[in-house]
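Before relying on records like the one below, remember that each one covers exactly one chain. Contacts with other chains, cofactors or solvent are not represented anywhere in the record.
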Amino acid sequence: MEDGSEGDSDEGWEETDTTHHLESVLCLFCTKHFNSATDVFDHCRSEHKFDIKKSRSKLNLDCFRYIKLINYIRLFKPSSQDLDLHPPTHKPEWDSEDLLKPVLTDDPLLMYDIEDETCSGDEESGSDVTVTLSKSEYDRLTNRSSALEKRCKGLEKQLQVTLQDMELMRSVAKDFLTIGEPVSNTGGATVEEEEDSYFSLYSHFGIHHEMLQDKVRTETYQTAICRNPDLFSGKTVLDVGCGTGILSMFASKAGADKVLGVDQSSIIYQAMEIVRENKLEDRIHLLKGRIEDLQLPVDKVDVIISEWMGYFLLFEGMLDSVLYARDKHLAPGGAVLPNKCSLHMVAISDTEKHGRLVSCWDNMYGFSMSCMKRDVIHEANVELVNREAVITDTALIKEFDLMTCARDDVDFKSTIKLQVTKAGPITALVGFFDSFFDLEQLKHKVSFSTGPSGTATHWRQTVFYLTQPVAAEVGAVLEGTIHCRRKRRDPRALVVTIEMFGQNLSYILE
């Protein structure tokens, strides 16, 4: 095969002499290892009744379709009898572009030059054979050859596009790891570019490590799923945004008959390895893509599970995908977990932090830069708030019932009403959310909170700083309104407008 890229790229394929022996080549169908690809195929033919030479002819394997077939067998472990050697006219399941990504790193079988193989379907005799064809048969083969050549060129172009996408992902990852956050695009990114950037962030292992290590989050899901086997036993479960597959594995452990995990991020490939490592591939089937774009292998599911919540609950816009899955795929009487979430707000007094972030602009080395304050506070902060700084009761500003709510509910206006419990200058309003697993059919109902009074989570709290602290006395009632809506050019971002204390302040989460 030709090198798909130039230079020292990690993703480039090195030219390989297929006559050389390769070390430790894993069989396609069992756990035996061999010294070369040829030995593997000899073993597959004698022990598993899979003949790569005959398959090449019957399946019309060019180099790309060969790669897809090898990755399909490694990924889904079909028996040789399950492989369709006489495919109908429609595209077979193993002929997916996603299967161009290697399942095993540096898989020697992918370097095997299938197009140099002698694939007559008969054993080589060493003698010349003359075959006479009719004109119609000759014309048919000629047309077939032209069609295959055209398809091969098309696949080569697709491979180049894939390599370019991978290069872009490496660039984004490099920027993210270098400066700690994605590079902003002041040129005005398209919605598609914002989507690609969003999903690329979830390809980073550090994010998933942080979420898995969040015990409040992960152990609540574990309890809600594993301690309610009656809801899962024998059922079909859909995990929207499955990430590393932890919720899918919880569902399988709870007795689910089939679990479908969906994720657009490339972390799905690690999830596939994790599922195989835990020997759950016969019960958990993972699909890469947006739930809105995929054709699921089942008509309906019994339960939808998802950890979709973002900062201030709604940041990231993943609730839309859960609601789409609910409306399209959930069977009547089915369940969504968590089934309810609520948004809350408190006021805090933390003059030290307000001074470091906001008030400092009033006197910066003897110069007034107070015009900077509005821009500084425009971007809401995500941080851990000291519970001792809270000086009001808690206001409920919005509830979401996942069984009934609609996509438009994300854009809402609500009143804020807070009673002051400790005197002090109010420096910010703080938003957080609670999640509930309390459906009637659950025997073990659980919930968790991301508020400042509870155990810290990776969501922390969302802080909306004021330009100037506002004095408040015990017993005073503070009233205002909050308007939450999606950002026009980036539906995963939020614009939050708060009218309170005689001020109209606008904040953004992106």
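The two ends are 43 Å apart (CA to CA).
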